[in-house]
Amino acid sequence: MRIRTFDEYQTAYQKSVDDPEEFWAEIAQNFQWRKPWTKTLQWNFTEPSVKWFIGGKLNITENCLDRHLAERGDQPAIIWEPNDPNEAGVTLTYRMLFDQVCRFANVLKRNGVVKGDRVCIYLPMVPELAIAVLACARIGAVHSVVFGGFSAQSIADRINDAQCKVVVTADGAYRGNKEIPLKSTVDDALIGCPSVQKVIVMTRTRTPVSMLKGRDVWWEQEVKQVTADCPAEEMDAEDMLFILYTSGSTGKPKGVVHTCGGYMVYAAYTFQNVFQYEPGQIHFCTADIGWITGHSYIVYGPLACGATSIIFEGVPTYPDYGRFWDIVDKYKVNILYTAPTAIRSLMGFGLEKVDNHDLSSLDVLGSVGEPINEEAWHWYDDHIGKNRCPIVDTWWQTETGGILISPIAGITKTKPTYATLPLPGVQPILVDENGKEIEGNGVSGNLCMKFPWPGILRTTYGDHERCRQTYFATYPGLYFTGDGCLRDEDGYYRITGRVDDVLNVSGHRIGTAEVENAINMHTGVVESAVVGYPHDIKGQGIYAYVITEGDAGGHDAELTKRDILATVSRVIGPIAKPDKIQFVSGLPKTRSGKIMRRILRKIAEGDTSNLGDTTTLLDPAVVDEIKAGAL
Ligand code: 7RM
C-alpha cells in the first residue's frame, strides 16, 4: 500500500487506471474485514450509484483500535493539547482510547441509540470528540459532527435534516481567551427538534447549564454506569458511517454521506502515502474535527494507520502567535498539516516566535482548504520547513472523503501553488462550459472526475436527487467538483478556486445564497447579494450589497450594519459574518431578473475600470451608484 519512489507512483497510477478493481482490492486487503467483499466496484455516474467492496463486512473501529492493541497498545493514539498551555494535556494510548470508546459506545446504547440511528455531536476539540465519533462507529450509529462555530439555528437545521435521536455536547468550550457556551446553544436549537430524545453533556468549562430531567444526562455519570466491553457492530461496507453538512451554491447545506468500507480504505491510503507516514511519527493536523479534514486526517486516517494524532483545542494566536511552534517543539511533531489562512496570519507577526522554537522534528508540511499563494508557500517552506521538508498542497473536498490531488511527500517534485498530480485511483478531466474535454497541457477549465475512487460521497442525506443535480448533472457522466483548474506544461494541476457561488473564507466553505438568506431575514432588508473578494489573510472576504426599506444610508447606517451582522451570526454562525456591507438602492439585474454577480464581484474586488458587457442590464444607472459607494 506504500509508494516509495516516483517510479512506483507512476506504476501504481497506471495500474489504478488499467485495472481499478484489482488496484483497490489489493490495498483493501491491508485492512481487517469480518467478511471479504465479493465484487470490488459497481458504479454509474448517472443515477449516480457507487458501491465499493460489495458484500464486505467490517467495523472501522476494529481497524482503528482493536487491530493495534497487540502491537502498539501502549503507544499514544491521541495527544490532547488544551487551549491553555498551563493546563495539563492528556495522552491516550491505543488501549486507553479503545477502553473509552467502548465505554462511551455503551453509554450511547444505554441511551437508546441503535445501529442506523443518527447522533449529532457538538463538542469542543477535546479527546471526547474523537471518542464520541468512534463510539458511534463502534455501534453502527451515524455521526453528524457540527462545528462549534455554528449557531443554534444551524444545529437545528442539521439535526432535523438527519432526524438525530441523540445530541452529544459540552457545557462550554475554550477558544483563545473566549469561553463559548455550547449547551445553552444546543438548548436553543432543541426547541425545534422533536426527534431528539437524549442529550449527553460532558463538562469542560463547568459553566452553569440547564439540565432537563428525562432528556439531559452527564457524560461523566453515564460512563460510570457501563463496562468497557462493547463488541463492534458488524457493518456492511456500504452502510452509512457519517453525515457531514457542507455548503453549496444554493439552498441549505447538504448532508454529505460517507460509508464504512470505501471511506476507511481511502482515508488510510491517502494518509499513509501523501504524508509518507512512518510508524512512530507524530502527526499534527490543526483543523477542527467539525470539518472533513479533521474527520479524515485527525481521526480515521491516522488511527487506521496506527499513528499518533494531536488534537489541539485552541487557536494559533493564543496565548501568543507562537502556539503552533510551541506544540511542534513540545511533542516533536513530524507531520504538520494546516491551512494557508493560518500561515498567512502568522506570517504577519514576523519570525520572533518561530525562531525561538526547535522545529527540527518536522519532516513533512501539509496545506489544505484553499489555494496557497506563492508568498505563503515560500514562508512555510523557508521558515517552518527550513527548506528541508516537502510541502504537500493537498486538494480535496468534503465530498471526496480524502485527498485527490497532491504531491506525495518527498517523491513528487513540488511546485509552489500547485497541488501537482492526481493520486493513484484519481482520474481528473478538465472541461469547458459545454462539457467538452479540454485536452493537452497548458490549459485550464472546470475540474471534474471521470472515475470513482473509494472515498467519493454516496449521496446527500435524504435527497439523492439533490446529489445528482449538484455533482453529476452539470456534465453528464462526470463528477463536477465546482473548482476551476489549470494544467500546466508538465501536466501539473493548480486549483484556481470555486467557479460556483461558494466562498472560501479562512478555509471555511460558505454559500453566498446561505448568507443572503440570513441577511434577508433581517428586519427592513428587501434584498441582498453576496460575493467574495480577495482578502490578504482569509483568502476571501464576504462582501454584501443590501437593499433596505426606506433610507438605510442615513445616520444609523453603521448601527444597522452591526445589527445585520448579529442576525447573520444568529442564523448561521459568526464564521459567515460579512466583512463589508454596502447599502444600495438596487442591484444590477438582467431583463429576466437575474442578478449579475460578475459585476458585483468586480466592484467588490475594487476593479471598476472594465465591467464587461452591461448591455443586458435592466437599469445600467444602478451600476454607477454602486461603483460610487463601493467600500
Ligand atoms: C478539504 C476541504 C473544499 C473546497 C474545494 C476547493 C478548496 C481545498 C484546496 C482547495 C486549492 C487546495 N474540504 N480547496 N483544498 N483549493 N488548493 N489545496 O477543504 O469541502 O471544506 O472545501 O476547498 O475550492 O472545492 S471542503
Automatic annotation (TrEMBL):
Keywords, sorted A to Z: Acetylation, ATP-binding, Ligase, Nucleotide-binding
Biological-process GO terms, alphabetical: acetyl-CoA biosynthetic process from acetate
Entries under Pfam families matching the protein: ACAS_N, AMP-binding, AMP-binding_C
Chain segments annotated as coiled-coil in the UniProt record: none
Domain AMP-dependent synthetase/ligase: 66-452
Domain Acetyl-coenzyme A synthetase N-terminal span(s) in chain numbering: 9-64
Molecular functions per Gene Ontology: acetate-CoA ligase activity; AMP binding; ATP binding
Chain ranges of the AMP-binding enzyme C-terminal domain: 514-594
Record EC number: 6.2.1.1
Record-stated family: Belongs to the ATP-dependent AMP-binding enzyme family.
Protein name per UniProt: Acetate--CoA ligase
